């Protein structure tokens, strides 16, 4: 295999082999798109027949024949008219629509391998024989163009690698990922629930999950206080006009919940016989007023800054909020806790002078590092999202954008971790640094973000009085180390496989008496633990010891205090760790309590939790 064959080429080519195999077995299939993805590929099909797992096996067998045939990929440049005629003759309506998306004057290419031909810009491997190892993974529904108003197509997922060994390693990782799936573990461990009666993408935090969330909030609040932040609270809704000023409405119209008309606008629209669409349009055009479920916290934080005059002596002004925001995600994109419609951000905003900007950015980045280090997320990289100067998406002048981008480049360079620059990935009001964390399975997750914003202060006419007694414009920093608490906890469930470190665990100690006659002493032990702020549960069931231990292990309780007659008589406990087994043996209750308090206070990771002799 030549050195320039990349996984992306292999996977894109495998997607074409998949489509060719489907067309051989199901000639009536209509084709949409089949791109390579970060971990594999997929292809979308419109077919009256519903694919089954048996179909998947047959399709994969057919793909192997195509790969064994070593079909050459041939690229042909054609005119728009030629491409249209070909797709019409092949009765492929989705391809015709995709063809219409190609801008006038842009090159149009076809790729052929064997009897299969596809509208595609490439690139591909030289021949199907270079697809060394392939596996189809599953079937899912996918709305055409990602819009739930359109027809739902059938999406077949697969993956491909340059060697069978690499594929086998990946499949082993996928099996481990299934065991760690936060949707499965979250239900099993009673951490969260999702109920259609409440709404898709709306997380119900159960008591055990709420404990994890509260611990994370307390942890970050403690760090924020060290850096001089003040906590604030803002409403869940605000007037539409606020988000017009900020630019969020209607800029993010497709990802926002519809506005809620105020009573006067509703009455006027009803009397005028306006439809809901016309009423919303009136609100958008300023002919009526209403409220919006807030998609962002920052406009309300700007209002807090502007609630009184500020001097340069007040800066930097730092405010933080666990603010719940609402985004209208397509139903097909919702996924457990990691993609939701209502989520809480550990949001904070800093208003500072231009001279303070660099130091405050460094403080934000160090805070993110503290979070990652505490949670054992030691592998991460940085993406710098920059403006695309040719796009109309962005607001503000070139000078401010250049200043903001330069300060982020300099700060990222001092982190000592890999970073890349991505043109066109900035927020509409400013550039950003995103942190991409690698979990224990090697999967990457985008988490914390830091953004520099010269433009919202301009739009809101925000100012402070400088040492020269004249008005100056502050710079605004948007910062969220966790990002979304829902997404972050979903990641932690999978990262730890449910085996949370003691300080985060919903239940830190399970007390297991060996008989009913020991319940009095076991209750005294439980009360002692509670007085010391340790979360504990007393298993008073009449089951035998192995059953109780097994139950505690399945519920992923990090520590067990086992109490027999010998322990009760001596005022001691036998300590067992879920991670390390019977590593401590018989200990005095006070010694066991002090160890746990230390492990909790120091936020020790499980592999380092060892009790002193």
SSE topology:
Blueprint: H1 7-25, E1 30-31, E2 41-46, H2 53-68, E3 74-78, H3 80-89, H4 93-101, E4 108-113, E5 116-119, E6 133-143, E7 152-161, H5 164-180, H6 182-188, E8 192-193, E9 204-205, H7 207-226, E10 230-231, E11 237-239, H8 240-246, H9 248-251, E12 260-261, H10 263-271, H11 276-285, E13 290-293, H12 298-305, E14 317-326, E15 342-352, H13 357-374, E16 380-386, H14 398-413, E17 419-423, E18 432-438, E19 444-453, H15 455-459, E20 464-465, E21 471-472, E22 475-480, H16 485-496, E23 509-513, H17 519-531, E24 536-538, H18 545-554, E25 559-563, H19 565-570, E26 572-577, E27 581-588, H20 589-601
Parallel strand pairs: 10-14, 16-17, 23-24, 23-25
Antiparallel strand pairs: 1-2, 2-7, 3-4, 4-5, 6-7, 8-9, 11-13, 12-13, 14-15, 15-22, 16-18, 18-19, 19-22, 20-21, 25-26, 26-27
Helix pairs in contact: 1-2, 3-4, 6-16, 13-14
